[in-house]
Amino acid sequence: MKKISLKQYNSFGIDVKATNLISIESEIDIINFLEKKKNDKILILGGGTNILFTKDIDYPILKIEIKGIEIINEDEDEVLVSVGAGENWNDLVWWSIENNFGGLENLVSIPGNVGSAPIQNIGAYGKEINEVIENCRGIFIKNSTMKIFNKDECKFSYRSSIFKEELKDKFIISNVTLRLTKRNHKINTEYKSLQNTLIQRGDTNPSIKNIAEFVHSIRSNKLPNYKKIGNAGSFFKNPLIKKDKLKEIRLSCPDIVSHKTKGSEYKISAAWLIENCGFKKIEVNNVTVHKKQALVIINSGNAKGIDIYNFSQKIKKTVREKFDILLEEEVNIL
Ligand SMILES: Cc1cc2nc3c(=O)[nH]c(=O)nc-3n(C[C@H](O)[C@H](O)[C@H](O)COP(=O)(O)OP(=O)(O)OC[C@H]3O[C@@H](n4cnc5c(N)ncnc54)[C@H](O)[C@@H]3O)c2cc1C
Fold first, then answer.
1. What span, in angstroms and rounded, lies between the C-alpha atoms of 125 and 191?
2. Class for domain 4-64, per CATH?
3. What is the Cα–Cα distance from 276 to 117, expressed in whole angstroms?
4. Ligand 1 nearest-atom number relative to CA 128
């Protein structure tokens, strides 16, 4: 059987091979595939920007390419937009801005597909996608039945949802419906670097377009372009710790970066922890961390997936030993 390189299908640029890559353009395509499949093991692939391949994939890969953006309901204040899982997320954000629909502006420039966005409840610059989700529709792999998950059923939490936990590899999202504002947009400028940009520009009343442009510009200065330097954005989640633990760390590290969550915990900057373990100066087998953002592990040459994985585990071990904090991967490792 002819082998296909997955190098162009993952943002780390890892050259593993697959034997069966199937393009999925509709829900009917999913059902047709499921009815003929021989076993349950499949890989659902979007843009491949949150995956680390460490080995060849010898089971079917469903490449989700379901298109379509449709307004299904609206009133004077809000609009419901139904989007195919294979649409590009960033294109959707700019489409919403052009139509003056608010809610996605802080989430601009996040790579990947619309259907993957709810899986880890994508978030950036003070917003998470769950704030605008109406529902997610899809199909169970086991029995081909369709289900619409309303927002509560999606069980969204920080960088997670039911689709990343109980339903991981069990349910294929085919469509996402978003509730966006048409007026009285809820402009969110809480995020520090966004606030600083607005202060520098003397802008006290930004539009959703301004927010998207500023966030895009901040991101392009800070994050490497994965088309040039392989990466998958943040490799780990920012850990949540209790107040007592934070106090203890502060005794020896007064400059630790943290902020209080809505609950009783504190979110610690994983980038700060990694940088403080010296990883900006370490490179092994063409793997290191980005100089401007230590949470982003990069493929600085022709690194293998397993080298990136080993480097990530070295980071995990060092952070655990130095701070007694366990980092949890945000990236899906295969
Ligand atoms: C430079 C860079 C910056 C990033 N910045 C951010 C950021 O600011 N915030 C953030 O949250 N993330 C960020 N990410 C991570 C990534 O962009 C998001 O997680 C994105 O939603 C992944 O989309 P994808 O289509 O590439 O998913 P993939 O990598 O293809 O898949 C991710 C997971 O979802 C599963 N999956 C994919 N599609 C479906 C589907 N239709 N149904 C069921 N399961 C599916 C896959 O099997 C896999 O487990 C960044 C990544 C990069 C490279």
1. 5
2. alpha beta
3. 31
4. 11
Please tell me the distance between residue 206's alpha carbon and the centre of ligand 1 in angstroms. 28
pLDDT in tens, 62-109: 999 999 999 999 999 999 999 999 999 999 999 999 999 999 999 999
Amino acid (1-letter code) at residue 170: K
Q: Is 320 a catalytic residue?
A: no
What's the burial of 314, exposed, middle or buried (CB within 10 Å: 0-12/13-18/19+)?
A: middle
Q: Where in the chain is CATH 3.30.43.10? A: 4-64
Q: In what order do the strands lie in the sheet with 43-45?
A: 21-24, 61-64, 43-45
pTM over 0.90: yes
Decide which of 2.60.120.10, 3.40.50.12780, 3.30.465.10, 3.40.50.11010 is the CATH code for 69-181. Answer: 3.30.465.10
Q: Which of 11, 159, 161, 312 is catalytic?
A: 159
**Domain boundaries for CATH 3.90.78.10 within the chain:** 240-333
How many CB atoms are closer than 10 A to CB 258?
A: 19
Q: Which of 12, 67, 90, 110 to mutate to test the pocket of ligand 1 (most atoms within 8 A of CB)?
A: 110
The mean pLDDT value for 206-228 works out to: 94
User: Which fold, 240-333?
Assistant: 3.90.78
DSSP helix/strand/coil, 217: helix
Given CA atoms 39, 44, 50, 55 in this order, what sign does their dihedral have? positive
